[in-house]
Amino acid sequence: MTDAVEEYEAVVVGCGPGGAAAAATLARNGVETLVLERGVDAGSKNVSGGLIYAEESAPYTIDGLFPDFREEATERPVTENVIHNIAGDKVKSFDIGDLHHHDTAWADAVLRRKMDSWLAQQVHERTRETGGGLLTEVHVTGLLRERGEIVGVTTEELDPIKADLVVAADGVNSELARDAGLMDWEDPDEWFQGVKAVVDMEPGVINDRFDVAPDDGAAHLFSGDLFDGVRGGGFLYTNEDSLSIGTVFHLDSIAEEHAEPHELLDSLLTHPLMAQWLGGEYDEREYSAKLVPDSKKAAHPSPHKDRLVLVGDAAGQMQAQGPIIKGMNHAVTAGALAAEAFADARARNDPSQAGELYEKKLHDEGVMDKLRPTGYKVFGQLGELSPVDDLSNAVADSAVGRFGVRAAAGLLERAYSSPRMVSMIPDTKLPYVTLPTVIAEELGEPVTDENTVSPPDLADRIGDLTYDVGDPHIELVDNSFEASGTAVTACPVSAQDFGGGCYRDETVKTNGSEEHLVSLDTQPCVECGTCAIVADTEWEHPAGGKGVEFKQG
Amino acid sequence: MHTVVMTKGVPDFREGQVSFDEDGHLERGKTPTVMNPNDKHALRAAFQTKVRNGGHVSLMSMGPPGYKEVLQEGMRDVYADDLYLLSDREMGAADTWATAMTVATGLQNLDDQPDLVFAGFKTADGETGHTGPQTCWCLDWPMITHVVSLDIDEDAGTVRAKRLVDGDISEIETVEAPMPCFIVADPEFEPTYRKASHRLNHKDLRDETQERAEEYEDYLTVWDHEDLNLDPDYIGLDGSPTIVSGVDPIPKAPSEREATIIEADDSEALVPILDELTPYAVGD
C-alpha cells in the first residue's frame, strides 16, 4: 500500500468563472489540472447580481474560452440600461446605455447555478483529458507547506495534494488568500454587501412589462433616498423567466446605520416605481446574499505568493464604481492570465516564476488599472476626506447646487454615461444618496402607480432555502455586544428581535449585573462572510457539500 | 483482480411498496422485487476495490429470470462490469445449503477465478445469514465477516479489513487474510476515497456503469444446471435438507403500559388523580 502524497501540476480551487477560465486555459496548455469545488454542484455556493460582461479590451472573455457559453449558460442580453434617481415618489430616469456600451462586446444576465454548473461540465471534460478533472464537495481548507513554502493544498475530504501551481479562485471569502496572509477581513469600508431576490415571471410577461423582444433584456439601477441614507443602490435585471432584483451597499455604511439588509431590499421591492414591472403578484424563488470586494481598495496589487496565485473575488478583483459593477469578467481574464503565466513559466523551465509573470500580465493587459483606476486615486479618494465630502453634500443640496442640477439636466445624463467621470466617483453619500435625491427632487416626476407587493418575511426567506446542515463553521470569538453586535443587523439572515436567524442579541443577568451578549446559530447561514468582518469570529466555510445550496444563485 | 458480489432479489419492504393480505401474508405478486439492500453495501465494497485497485467486478445471483432486473439495479445504482444469473427450474425452492452449492459451483465456473467474493449481511426476507458462509465453506477459503473497511495489498496478495467484533460497533478489530478471500460486508461499511484520483476514477466508472445498465442484457450471462454440470438431486428443492414444518405469524407484543379511562363528566373519578398529583404541586 503506497501512501505517497498525490501530486498534480496545477490545482484550481473553486469552479466559478475565474476558476473555470484558469482550468480551461491550463488544460488547453496541456497542464494536468485538478479542480476542487466545495458545493454539491458548481454554482450552488455562488451568488452574483448578475450581469457578466465581455469587454472589447480584455485579452480573454468567457465566450472566447467557452464558445457555447451565451447559448447554454446565460439568460437575456442587456439591450436597455436605465438609472433611476429617486426622492420619495419622485423619479428621474437617465438612459445610461452609452456607459454600458463603452468597451462592451456584450453583457448578459446570468443565474449562477445554471451558469457555473454548465461551466463545470465543460471544465471537467477538458481537464479530465489532462489526467486531472473536477471534483465537487471538496472543501479546501488551507495551504500545504514544506519548509515554510506553499507547495499545495489541504482539504477536509481528501489527503493533502501537492501542485506546482495553486489557483485560489475560492471566492470572496477565500480561505487560501487568508492563509497566505494576502487578504484580510478587517475593514468594512473595503467591502460591499449585496442581497438579491430572484422573482418568478413568465417570459411573455417580462417581454410586455419591460417592452423588450424575447431575446432582449433590461438592466435598471436605482439610487436616492429610498434606502434610509445607507450608501449604495439597487438593481433589476431580466432573466429568461425570472427577474433578479437586489441591493448593494457599502458594508461600513450598513454597519454604521445598523441597517437590516433584507429591509433595504424590501424598500426597493415595494417602491411605487416597481409596480409597473412587478404588477402586484410576487413569487420569490430565492433570497441570497454575498459580500463584494471593492477593488479600488481591496484588489491585491501583487496577488501571488510562492506557487499560489489569487484570482477573481479571492484577489478582490471586483470593480464597482457607481453604476458600473463588473466582477465576473475580470475573474475570467485574471484566471486565464494566471494559467497563461504558468504555461509560459513552465515553458521556460521555471514554473516558480508563474506568480511574478501573472502580476506583470495583470498590469500589462490593463486589468489592474480597471480595478484600481487612476481617476479614483486622484479625485475619488480626495472626495472621501470628510471636510471635502461635507462641503460637496452641502453644495449639492444648496440652492446653488439645485439650480445647477436643473440647469445641467442634459449634462448630468452625459456625466453618468462617461466612463471617465464614473471612475472618479468617491465612496461617499454624495453620489449614492445626496445627488440622486436632489436630481429626483428637482427634475423628477412623481410615480402614481400603487405597489401592492408584499415580500416574504425573513423567516420565510430562510425557510425556502435549501440547507444540508453540517457542523458549525463559524465560531464567535468575542460574544460581547460591543465586539459582535453589529452582526445582528448586518447579517442578511439575522435581524433585531428575530429569533430564527444566525445572530441574536440577548441580555443575560448574572449575579446582579447585566451583560449584553450575542449568540450565534450557523444553521441559516448563507455564507456571505459579513460577520467575518463586522463581528469577532473564526470564519471557515462548511465541509464539502454542506451548508446552503443555492438553486438560482 | 477479479471481484464477485453475490446478491439476491427480495420483496421491497419499504413503506408503501410492500403488500400484505388480510392474514398478514406477503403478497409477492403485488410487491416489487429489488436487490437485497444489504447486498448494496457488499457491492459498494467491491466497487471500492475496483476504484482503488482496478480489476473487474462481477455481480452474481441465483433465482428466477425476473432477477435479471435485480442485477441491472446493482449495475445501475452501484457498479458492475458484468452480470451472472444462475437460473432454471431445477434450482428452484432451494434452501441456503442447496443455494450455496449452486453459487459456489457458479463461482468455480468463471473463466477468470475470483480473488475476492463479497456477500451482504443477511437478506431482508430470509434473514438466515447462512448462504454466504456456506458458499465460503464450499470454496474452502478464509472468510472475514462484519467488514466495515477494507484495504488490498496486491503485491503481498493480502486483504486487510476492519471488522466489528460480535457485529457491534463498540469493538472493532483489524484482521488480515490471504486472497482469495470471502468478505461479508457489514451494513456499517463505508467506502472511503481520500485521493482525488480515486474520486475522479469513481466518477468515470459510475458514468460507465450507468451507460452499461441501459443495455444490461449485453453484459449478462445466464447459466442453468447443465452449464454448471450440476446434478439436479443436489440442488433446488431436492437438494435442500431443510424442512419447513410451518410458518407462524409473530404475535404483537403486549403493551406494558397501563391505561385508565376516565369519563370527562365523572368528577368523582378525578379525585384519585388529584391526590396523585398533589405532592408534585408547587407553592401554596
From TrEMBL, chain A:
<dbReference type="GO" id="GO:0016491">
    <property type="term" value="F:oxidoreductase activity"/>
</dbReference>
<dbReference type="Pfam" id="PF01494">
    <property type="entry name" value="FAD_binding_3"/>
</dbReference>
<dbReference type="InterPro" id="IPR002938">
    <property type="entry name" value="FAD-bd"/>
</dbReference>
<dbReference type="InterPro" id="IPR039651">
    <property type="entry name" value="FixC-like"/>
</dbReference>
<keyword id="KW-0285">Flavoprotein</keyword>
<keyword id="KW-0274">FAD</keyword>
<dbReference type="InterPro" id="IPR036188">
    <property type="entry name" value="FAD/NAD-bd_sf"/>
</dbReference>
<feature type="domain" description="FAD-binding">
    <location>
        <begin position="8"/>
        <end position="340"/>
    </location>
</feature>
<keyword id="KW-0560">Oxidoreductase</keyword>
<protein>
    <submittedName>
        <fullName>Flavoprotein</fullName>
    </submittedName>
</protein>
Automatic annotation (TrEMBL), chain B:
<dbReference type="InterPro" id="IPR014730">
    <property type="entry name" value="ETF_a/b_N"/>
</dbReference>
<dbReference type="Pfam" id="PF01012">
    <property type="entry name" value="ETF"/>
</dbReference>
<dbReference type="GO" id="GO:0009055">
    <property type="term" value="F:electron transfer activity"/>
</dbReference>
<feature type="domain" description="Electron transfer flavoprotein alpha/beta-subunit N-terminal">
    <location>
        <begin position="23"/>
        <end position="215"/>
    </location>
</feature>
<protein>
    <submittedName>
        <fullName>Electron transfer flavoprotein subunit beta</fullName>
    </submittedName>
</protein>
<dbReference type="InterPro" id="IPR012255">
    <property type="entry name" value="ETF_b"/>
</dbReference>
<dbReference type="InterPro" id="IPR014729">
    <property type="entry name" value="Rossmann-like_a/b/a_fold"/>
</dbReference>
